[in-house]
Amino acid sequence: MRPTRLEKPSVNRNDWKTIRALLPYLWEFKTRVALALSLLVMAKLASVAVPLVLKEIVDALDQPHSMLVLPVLLVVGYGVLRLCSTLFGEIRDAIFAKVTQRAIRRVAIRVFGHLHALSLRFHLERQTGGVSRDIERGSRGISFLLNFMLFNILPTLFEIGLVAAILLSMYDIWFSVIIFTTLVAYIALTLIITEWRMIFRRTMNDMDSKANTRAIDSLLNYETVKYFGNESWEAKRYDEHMQKWEIAAVRNQTSLAALNAGQSAIIALGMTLLMLLASDGVIKGSMSLGDLVLVNAFMLQLYMPLHFLGFVYREIKHSLADMEKMFALLTENEEIKDKSGATDLILGDAVVRFESVNFSYESNRQILFNLSFDIPAGHNIAVVGHSGSGKSTLSRLLFRFYDVTGGRILINNQDIRDITQKSLRAAIGIVPQDTILFNNSIYYNIAYGRPDASCEEIFEAAKSAHIHNFIENLPDKYETTVGERGLKLSGGEKQRVAIARAILKKPEILIFDEATSALDSKSEKAIQEELKRIASNRTTLTIAHRLSTIADADQILVLDKGSIIERGTHRELLVAKGFYAHMWELQQQEEQSRLQLVDDIEDNPDTMVGVE
After folding, report:
1. Last residue of a domain, one of 279, 299, 330
2. What global pTM score does this model have?
3. What's the domain count of the chain?
């Protein structure tokens, strides 16, 4: 395990930039914001007036007994002002609630949409657990920031100004000097120590995100962990970040205790000096008992929110730190964007052309080299080759998950970089090699191909994929939940769901990326016939490893190290006795060996006990 030390995260977003990013969401409800601020001012005016009325009540009661008269109006006014200071605040919160919740919703949707707009490259490198935790913390931070910055910092400063003005106008200047000095000392201490403490908060956030990433990654790969008995190893990896989080959390809490103690000392000193000054004024006769009560009430009224202001400032800084990574997600560059003025794809009979295509995932790792081929309308072009030859990259480029680094891809003579991504992907259906399903029902996962499809259409698609009978025999039928990533289904069952989903979409262009790789031979033959049926009259790109599945393709391309080394029909390639013919021979030998094993088991079942 690496030695623990605090690491300052690389993200250090400017706080004012984060605050400015929230202003448009406030402007959307400018009437509500203005009304809430008006109620805020009224609540503070009522709050500041309470000690003034209390002074009058005390002075009225500080009379010889014979002159004493109950100041009913003053007492009633005192109660009304107390009520108003609270009531206006509650009404303000109710009015502003929609502003806060709408801002959270808007930002969350914006981040969610932006994440889907980012390229496949970003999603292959992202850490899902960390990203989800960043968004969760950021959303909470928005609520705290909007409420406390508007309704605690601003009103507290407003109240401090009012109180200082009243004391300056009514009493000796030393009252204002003491208050002002106390405020400056308090604020200076809070700012300096809080800024220093932010490294602990940011480290906590960073370690929390990384630990969550490790946890989710480990849980998603639960079976792999069990296969290799690596539970303790996973716990150790998880604890690497939790240990750093613990150190940062302890330092965060101890520094907070030191800050609170310093703030309390400054406030206590200021209050003591003010009370000494006021008491001296009463003794000398320059101030009445009501004045003493007024100064004391103002001190309590001023220093309690001031003490809370220190807490609010710290929490706002924490909220800004929590929001940093969420807003940083919005700055991630959208690698694949629609061009300005991009038009929808005009289909008709779809003709696909790869024209001198070069492509690199990284600058030092080129995958495709000067690749050119056509897929005529209604034809099936198959691509074969060893793993890593670049077969699946073709489907990613056709879907425009990446842009080519050289050459171009055309559909009906339209460069796919000039058309909208939405219209492009609406025209293409795919059955991928690795089928990942949503943790929802089978019905939902099939309907995902076309969410507005009718039940009958979904059932028909399932029948075409030869999975309808299997679903009907399940206890919950189509409402059966498939589990995380579809792990409750076998590989073959998941692939049939993917086939049904593609059938339901009814695309003009089809991509089969080793679409039957997870099926047994009997199921493969049945599905293969159905795939041929749905591919008829559709432009089809078939990526295959098992050559028997593409023997009837209109043309077969053989890829090796990103280049086409052979092309032709199945028969032509066999006659050529090249790379394809060699692959075919090897696979035929493997098939013969498998069939021989099956025959041996059927002829001599007793000798094969224990063989699965």
Report:
1. 330
2. 0.63
3. 2
